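Q&A log
Question type: sequence-to-structure
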Amino acid sequence: MLKWFKNRFFLFGLICTLGFSMLLVRLAYLTVELGETYYALSMERKSVEIPLRGSRGNILDRNGIPMAMNKQMFVVELDKQRMPTGDKQLNDLIQRVVSIIKQNGDTTSLMDNIPIKIDGNGRLYYIWESKSPENQKRDFERWKSDAGIKVDLPAADMLKHLRERFKIDDDLSDDVARDIISVRLDIYINRYRPNPIRIATDVSQKTVAQLETYASELPGLQISVEMGRYYPMGDVAAHIIGYVGRISSEDIEEYKSKGIDLREAGYDLSIDRIGKMGIEKYAEQWLTANTRDKHGMLWAEVNSAGKVVRVLSETPPEDGNDVVLTLDSRLQKAVEDILAEEIHKMAAGLPPYEGDKQALYANRGAAVVLDVHTGEILAMASYPSFDLNLFIPTISSEEYQRILNTPGKPLTAVAFQERFPSGSVIKMMIGIAALMEGKTSLDEQIYDAYRYTKYSGSGPRCWAKPGVHGHENFVDALKHSCDYYFYEMADRLGIDKINKWGRLFGLEGHTGLEIGDVESSIGGPEKRPITRRPMIVSNIKAFMEKAGCFEGVDPETQKEHVERLADLPYETSIAEIKKILRDELGYFKRKDENKKLDNLASSIKYGALWHKRWMPEDTVRTGIGQADVQVTPLAVARYIAAIANGGKVLETHVFKKVVSPEGDVLHETQPVVVNDLDIKPEYLEAARLGMYKVVNDRSSAGGGAGTAVSYFAGMDPSIMVAGKTGTAQTKTISGADKDPQKRLEQEMRNVAWFGAYIPYENPEIAIVVMIPNGRTSSNAALVARRIIEEYYRLKNTQSQFSTVDEVNHLKQ
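Response status: OK
Response body:
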């Protein structure tokens, strides 16, 4: 036996046998004893590529205070690898998850991927119903293509079709079916993408806790944390900042028209947010972190719950850039608070708005504070406003309807998205234009004859009683706001020259505001048929309906006939109108209908087309900001700034600069002079002196004190204000000159204005306050006074802080 152990071949074979035996035993142990464990482990862990997105850039005020920022939010998702594959199991899972989310009050957090809605009466409709037929078809075809739908069906039938496609239980209501279909459509549309399916965004911690409690019963469910938009100041500067929302078909088309394919650019059309209005929209290219160049990627190992257990490699994403505004958020909030408070007091007749200052219908207003040297907007308030956070992640239809039904149109920016007759704040421009065109001199005095009777005995009147103003030169006419003086100047200038100077002073067209404003307009014979067309069309339609023209006529033909008549020039004779009505449009062809034809033609001529005329007295009224003058408060602020700064008409800006995450300035807005008016210094100085006297000249001689002296009485004497009052009439009631009640109703509809700059010497800012239905300019002046006082309070506080900072710096 021993000799075998001495044989080296035997020993070698023995060692090999023993080694292989041990390996076999170990292999058996691993496969039999630990096989289940390692199999489960191998199934639980897998390598994945996880796309990483940076955060959207912040929107900051000029001092670095956040006005739009990001906060952590919980996102409810389904992992496509772990969720059920059977229709019933998947539908049950979605229904249960959505039910928990709704029970906890997070309904508006749910993703809504189905364009079929249910109204209050239970009617099913497509969301594009209100659009034009072309846009309806475009949106419908795009959705069908994305959703893999081959049939054209009404909303109710389409929902039924989708219920059948996704095998949704017939016992479930349409509302519940919508929720399930929304998620199922998202799964289908993103079937080739590895991303989880998002069910809800920005849910509450209560929802998260409840979902995690039942996580073992909800296969594929995962809760992730990401950054979402938040507006820390709520409704402050809402119309300027804007908000973000889900990418709509309109967004896709709008960007496509600019040569940008959002999907190609890197946006995930199903979950990404995009700027919808205001700075959020204008600065999308800088704020966004959704573009492909900013994407990152994480290669990681995840467990069966989708949690990362090991990072293999990572390319970090880039955040969006910060946008800095010209606004001072402290001043902005103060101006909004003052405007809201004073308008409430005004409507209620509380001090100082008692008696003939009470403005019963006042429920809206605007205030602008503008840097006269740069055109930067320091504050621009529109009242009423709305809380931007209501739109994050999405606003409910009930909440949106509530905002729409709120008096004062909160979604419209009164300061730059609406136009109003300017009233007397236009008078500096009229006077300077007359001086520059050689139509008057600084020394010429015009006698206020009360009623301007050059063209008719019922011409426009001065606001002051006969004999009060007497002889007025340019400066005193501004001080007393003498209408008669500016009637005469407007008549001498003519409407073409008034329009010329309106353009030069920036009271025509846009102001340059980045987020878009409506055009201001002085008006004139060329513009009147355009500006009055809605009224003309409405009147013609009413006349034809009253005459019985539209019985059995389809709406499209009705519209064509009304438009045909509205296109006629006002010189069109009654005979020509009758011929068009009878021979071309086919109305009143029988002889016994001649009287109806005569009456209708006469109504169209004098009740509609006549409104296209431009008469000499319209030019006269333009001199005091009436007739067809329509301007925005922002445009008026720019015009006041030009008077203050020596004749430089500037573009207005709310967008200051773009700053990268590393702190580099990528873009900065510079002041832009649109027109450098070559106005004689003495003429500008006369306009400024007249504005100074409006507020500060208490002399009762020669027409009385300035029109705003009493409203600034008792103000800190170190604050030197130059300003101009303005009251614009918007409604004419027959018999108002004789009936006090009618006169009161007419007054209540007046637009109240006050424009100013401070200080009188070395001006810094222009301030404009405008209140529709504000009754009298004194009400706007009282609001402006509070804003001016607050401006100086904040300025002095800042100066004190700066001094303390300097002292502390020296001590260190």
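Response note: The first strand starts at residue 46 and ends at 52.
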